[in-house]
Structure formats: structure tokens, C-alpha cells
Amino acid sequence: MHPELGGYAPSDIRVVAAWDVDARKVGQDVAEAIFAKPNCTAMFCDEVRHTGAKVRMGRVLDGVADHMADYPQDRTFLLGDDAEPTKDEVVRALRETHAHVLMNYRPVGSQAATEFYAECALEAGVAFVNIPVFIASNPAWAARFKAAGVPIIGDDIKAQLGATIVHRVLTNLFRKRGVKLERTYQLNTGGNTDFLNMLNRTRLASKKESKTEAVQSVAETRLDDENIHVGPSDYVAWQNDNKICFLRMQGQMFGGVPMNLELRLSVEDSPNSAGVAIDMIRCAKLAQDRGLAGAILPAAVWFCKHPPEQMADDEAYEAVEAFIAGA
Question: Residue 218's pLDDT band (boundaries 50, 70, 90)?
């Protein structure tokens, strides 16, 4: 969304360290690891220049759902054989590589794994960009980042043009046009490891809450739980990284006359997220440059489904643009 952001271009971002738990990636330069299975996204660049950063074995903890071992190896994880790192080893790597920002893309439901890397970011003093569970929007964690003088942006990335932002915009449109929204659902299917991981419904508590609250927060009147369903729905292997959203909204127009809207959205999941991630990383660096600490609200409300505070999208856009401009 920002070819130039606060003086930084996307090309100014350099990968200096990386962690994963898949044996096909551990030990590989990041430029090679991104093409390894189970990655299955559309490729728009056939060759990537070596980064000099080799993927290190990461901490597993709750980062891999148990059921994923039941799927073919080209669809799921082969755990690396290297010893898992201690917090001190991750902190040392962040310091030795002079990292500025740590991006956490652990799978949905990885609470313990995310907290491990959040602790590493705090100790190393590097800005933290968080995706899978609630850290930035958790007051206790936000206070710790504030006290440590470390910026954090999160939680749960809002894709460039994904199901959540479309659902929010349409919900806001209903409100502004005086259409009473009575019930709605958002069903999503995909074939990447994100969707495979989410077949374990016990890992979905924060994801379902963040997606649902993102819609509820812009509705004229909050819907009862039985009248709104927002969340991942199923894993379809042949879809690979293609994510399909089925959206339905039912309501009443003038005179109580019923209406409904149905929408089908098809996107490539990873690049839909990647461009936003690039903006989040640069906003985290900008906050670091300015000596800011704790949750960076203007970036969170625009880029994330579950920021520390919810804000209408028009207001969030103005807030992040003002932040980038230094206002």
C-alpha cells in the first residue's frame, strides 16, 4: 500500500535471521527455503538473490498441531533434527545480526511459541510484529513492551484485500445506508498449511474472536452470537494457497423489506498478506527510529484485525497516514 513509507522502500528490508521447524528449510538460505515445500503459493519471481541468512531450527512448542502428522509430507511439516534453540540463543542471534524487527508468522493457536519469541524480542530490544495470537492487544504484554522501550504491532494481520476488510467495508456500508443488518456469515476455505493447521478447532479461539470482532466493531448494532459466523471453514488440499471466501449478509431496507447480499472472493493468500507485512515491518522500524514503545496503535488499527482498540476503517486510514507522516 506504500511504495515509500517514512523514507523506507520495500527494498530496504533485509532478512538477517530466520527460524523454522521444517527440515526442508532448516539450514537453507532464506532465498532457497521460501521455495521449499510445504510452500504452495503462486510464484511471481523465479530466482531470489541469496540473503546470507540461513534458516535456523526454531522452537516447536505448540507451533505444530498434532493432526498435521497424519497428512502427506508434501502438505505438512517434517520437524527438523537440529536441537531447538534456547531463548538466550535466539536473543544472541538477533543481537549479532543487528536485527531491528522480528516478524512472528507462527501458525494460528501458537500461544506458547508466540510468547517465546515475544520474550526474545523484549530481551533483544527489537521491535515485534505479531500475527497469530493476542500479544499487542493484551494489556499485560503491551505494558511490558512499553516498559522495555520496544514497539509492537499486532494482532492478526488484515490482508491487502481479504475477507475481513471486505466484510468490514460492506458492514459499514449497510450502517451508512440505513440497512439493518440482521445476520451474516463468512466462510473461508483454502489448501495451504494455515488452513490445514486450523482443522484443529481448539486452536481457533483467538482467530475466530479477531475476525468476528473486526466485523462486529463496525456494525450499527452488535449481532447476537447466533446471527453471526465468521471464521475458517475447511481445508481443501487442491486449492493450495488460493483462499475462497463465501460471504452472505441479510438485512432489512425501508419499510422492513428484506434484502440479502452474497459475495465470492478468491485471492492468493500469501501475497495478499505479504504486502501488508512489508508495511507493518517498516512502521515498526519507523516507531523504533522515533523512540516509540508499546503498542503502535495507528499501525495496528489499519493493518490488524484485532488491534488494542478498534477503529472505523476511514479513521484508521487517516491515523496510519498521519503516523507515517510524523504528525
Answer: very high
